[in-house]
Write a structure and sequence with these properties.
The complex is a heterodimer of chains A (372) and B (203). Chain A has 372 residues and is mainly α. In chain A, 67% of the residues lie in helices and 0% in strands. Chain B is elongated and about 105 Å long. Classes of the chains: A mainly alpha (372), B alpha+beta (203).
Chain lengths: 372, 203
């Protein structure tokens, strides 16, 4: 397997050529991918918000944002600017410290999780050995922030919303983790890079999609519940709870929740693509195509094309899933809280356990196909 | 054991059924994406009101014989008819006439019963005002005709859904060939035009 483009080595090389001392060059490199990822995640949110509004409009036979920029593409920017300039109100009897801390605790882990999202062989901020576990661990920090925000608001709806968010996140983390565990068992690694590696080589046929159809459904349902997307948006169900834990928030603090929810959704889509849809792999194996043309795989221009194709593929898959999430939003009605917990504990949990056992059995029986 | 297996089978069947229903729902939602949007970009585009639209009432002062039928058929006796008996000509003379459209329910009874046809419905529906008393139209205001949507150069007139060409807004999952209740407007027009020539021959 060709390691592909190595941006870190090239940038450090360029820096040392420019006369930067060799010890300093890697230090200068460190903030670059972080800033890039932060910017990419924020732009990704803008795209997601625009997509959400346009696809929702299309599903309801409307036009959606149209006059703010071409095709209304600047609508999310306008939303964001409005939120930034709005007055930041802290209710009189709220707990100011927790009230401010809440949104931060919700958003930071989500952004941190982008550390392990790979866009190519070397195009990942850190190839953590515990990659996917890192994401699951960080995801369980989020409900603490939600609960904090709900409690600090000193509002019954906010408190109820926060409690519901906590209950929902905790219930759905278990099936989510079990679905991921089945993948991990097949890949023999928690690293996101290794998980994609293990799916590569056969194009679309090698993806985990075919080996984990049940796990895929469980993961998607659990991920929607974790993101509080529409069939499971009970924590902010506007008909019952005004806006749940967001009720008392305005300005940038509300903006952080808003941003966080979309970043989280994109993150889940990206990780879904990594776990089940072969990450940066194309439906037709690129190395096979390159071999067909007869160009050596480590030619610079081939490497650049493969790397950019990888990024495009990952994003394409993620946004396809986002589209599915939006479509689901307008298809499925919201579940009740008891139905939600019923689905989580009585359906997804046993099914994901059986899935895990079946995967283990298949791995022992057919080590060739299931990563023995 | 058998009972347990049957329960498991039923449960699995239910789950599959639920998944199929969600799939059907997704297909419907997806199908909607390629349909024509029903949006009317309001101040720039306006719907052409249908021919039986009951809008603001128009009143012709000179035709009115002050019979007060409009007041009697009105559910809330709304029109104000101010007349005086002229002894010389032995006729009622109309002084003022007004309808308060802040109260009117646009039922059209007055238009229906007016013996001299001095009341009629216009297609005006834009009656937003800053003060509700502005909606109390007097004889002069009632005599004004609204600007036609089709004549306004600032506005793109749009046809209403039922008037669009056949097949543009077909709903899904209906037996083929099913239409809305009653005759389509174009059918009425066709009938009307079919009757016309025969009348002209008779005259």
């Amino acid at each position: 397997m060709n390691p592909g483009i190595d941006l870190q080595a090239s940038v450090i090389h360029v820096l040392t050529d420019l006369g930067v001392p060799e010890d300093l060059a890697p230090v200068l490199w460190v903030p670059l991918p972080l800033l890039l990822m932060l910017a990419a995640a924020t732009v990704g949110v803008l795209v997601a918000v625009w997509l959400e509004r346009k696809v929702s409009a299309a599903a309801q036979q409307r036009v959606g944002p149209e006059y703010i920029g071409p095709l209304g593409i600047l609508a999310p920017v306008a939303d964001g600017l409005k939120l930034i300039f709005k007055e930041d109100v802290i209710p009189a009897k709220a707990d100011p410290l927790l009230f401010t801390l809440g949104p931060a605790i919700v958003v930071i882990p989500v952004f941190l999780s982008y550390l392990v999202v790979p866009f190519g062989q070397k195009m990942v901020i850190t190839d953590l050995g515990i990659g996917i576990f890192f994401w699951i661990a960080l995801a369980s920090v989020v409900p603490i922030g939600l609960l904090m925000a709900g409690y600090a608001s000193n509002n019954k709806y906010a408190l109820l919303g926060g409690l519901r968010a906590a209950a929902q996140s905790i219930s759905y983390e278990i099936p989510l983790a079990l679905a991921v565990l089945a993948i991990v068992m097949m890949s023999n690694s928690l690293s996101t890079i290794d998980i994609v590696q293990q799916q590569s080589g056969y194009g679309i046929l090698g993806w985990n999609l075919w080996r984990q159809p049940v796990g895929l459904v469980i993961f998607w349902v659990a991920a929607l519940a974790e993101c509080e997307r529409l069939p499971f948006d009970l924590p902010e169900a506007e008909e019952e709870l005004v806006a749940g834990y967001q009720t008392e928030y305005t300005g940038m603090k509300f903006g952080l929740f808003y941003l966080g929810s979309y970043v989280n959704l994109i993150l889940s889509s990206l990780l879904f693509a990594v776990l089940y849809l072969g990450g940066w792999e194309s439906p037709v194996s690129v190395s096979w195509l390159v071999g067909l043309v007869g160009v050596p795989e480590n030619t610079p221009w081939v490497e650049v094309i493969t790397a950019s194709l990888g990024v495009v593929m990952t994003l394409f898959k993620a946004y396809l899933l986002l589209f599915l999430a939006i479509l689901l939003r307008w298809t499925v009605p919201r579940v009740r809280i008891d139905q939600l917990l019923d689905l989580g504990w009585k359906f997804l949990l046993p099914v994901s356990l059986v899935n895990l056992l079946a995967t283990a059995a298949l791995k022992l029986a057919f080590p060739v196909a299931f990563g023995g | 054991m058998l009972k347990f297996l049957r329960q498991a089978k039923d449960y699995a069947q239910e789950a599959v059924q639920a998944a199929r229903y969600i799939g059907q729902g997704l297909a419907v939602t997806f199908d909607h994406m390629q349909r024509r949007p029903i949006t009317v970009q309001y101040p720039y585009e306006k719907l052409i009101p249908s021919e039986r639209w009951r809008g603001r009432i128009h009143f012709e002062f000179d035709k009115c014989i002050s019979c007060e039928v409009c007041v009697r058929v009105c559910p809330i006796n709304l029109p104000v008819v101010d007349w005086e008996y002229n002894k010389e000509v032995k006729k009622k003379e109309l002084k003022h006439y007004s309808i308060d459209f802040g109260v009117c329910i646009f039922c059209g009874n007055c238009v229906e019963y007016c013996p001299t046809n001095c009341l009629s419905m216009t297609e005006e529906y834009e009656m937003a005002v800053y003060d509700r008393h502005e909606l109390n139209y007097d004889g002069v205001a009632l005599g004004r005709l609204p600007y036609k949507v089709t004549a306004d150069p600032m506005v793109t007139p749009l046809r209403e859904l039922a008037y669009l060409p056949a097949g543009v807004l077909d709903p899904h999952n209906l037996p083929p060939g099913s239409t809305r209740a009653g005759q389509q407007p174009e059918e009425i027009v066709a009938q009307h035009q079919a009757q016309k020539p025969s009348k002209e021959i008779n005259q």
